[in-house]
Design goal:
The protein is of the alpha/beta class. It is about 30% helix and about 20% strand. The two termini are about 25 Å apart.
Length: about 250
């Protein structure tokens, strides 16, 4: 599908270079928080909440396959939104990018709202691994791991999450994105398929994406970058179809 242009303010990039040198510590224990109202699992699309182990509530939107069956497993995508990563942005990108293809292909998509700080800020990034582990209890993902994607600020967030907890994710897709801190060790991602889409004219994001992919390829990673000719930051000529084509190729056989 084509990703239609969003309201300009939706994709304002706040603090593109990252928000500090201290990455969030990986979450390695069993989550102590709870997903709200999940007994039985939610069977309809909509807005949900998860309670983190420190009491913080995370709002998220979920898209379920048509004819969802709680007894089955599905591929699960965690999709991190752009801009301020608020509810309006979450729903806009779901509607324009993810939902039609997810419904057609039989995927679950979860897109969380940032709890104040952006998800590449350590104060918020620490919740992503816990949210993933909680969701896996409710919607056990195909192959035991979730797919990960992000756009713009969500692309920075997706790299943050994958770098902090690479064992949680099957793959990493951004449009665009790159590691938010210069000190980030991309070697942690060398076994994860990484794909970046970026506009030809989006010079800063393109340069950072190309440098990231070059480093990963030096490490033997199958990382790839697609330069979208004539496009700037908001990609209009590619969208859910192309992104899901990549994600489908990473599904466990």
């Amino acid at each position: 599908m084509k990703w239609l242009a969003l309201v300009p303010l939706v994709l304002v990039v706040a603090g593109c270079g990252g928000s500090g040198s201290n990455a969030a510590a990986p979450f390695t224990g069993a989550p102590e928080g709870t997903i709200a109202a999940t007994d039985p699992p939610a069977t309809e699309d909509g807005h949900k909440k998860a309670v983190m182990s420190d009491g913080t509530e995370l709002s998220y939107s979920i898209v379920l396959p048509d004819g969802f069956d709680a007894a089955k497993t599905y591929p699960v995508l965690l999709a991190l939104p752009p801009g301020g990563q608020d509810q309006e942005v979450v729903d806009s990108v779901l509607d324009r990018v993810w939902t039609p293809e997810a419904k057609r292909r039989g995927w679950i998509v979860v897109s969380p709202v940032a709890p104040g700080a952006l998800f590449y800020d350590p104060a918020a990034a620490k919740y992503i691994p816990e949210l993933v582990l909680q969701l896996e209890r409710i919607y056990p993902p195909e192959g035991g791991q979730v797919h990960l994607a992000g756009v713009s600020n969500g692309g920075l967030s997706a790299f943050r999450a994958a770098l902090d907890s690479p064992g949680l994710f099957l793959d990493l897709l951004t449009f665009p994105g790159y590691p938010p801190e210069p000190s980030d060790d991309v070697a942690k991602l060398k076994r994860i398929p990484v794909a970046i889409w970026v506009g030809e004219l989006d010079s800063g994001w393109r340069a950072s994406g190309e440098a990231t992919v070059a480093k990963l390829k030096q490490l033997g990673s199958p990382a790839q970058i697609t330069i979208v000719k004539g496009e700037t930051h908001i990609l209009e000529s590619v969208g859910g179809k192309e992104y899901f084509d990549f994600l489908e190729r990473q599904r466990p056989s």
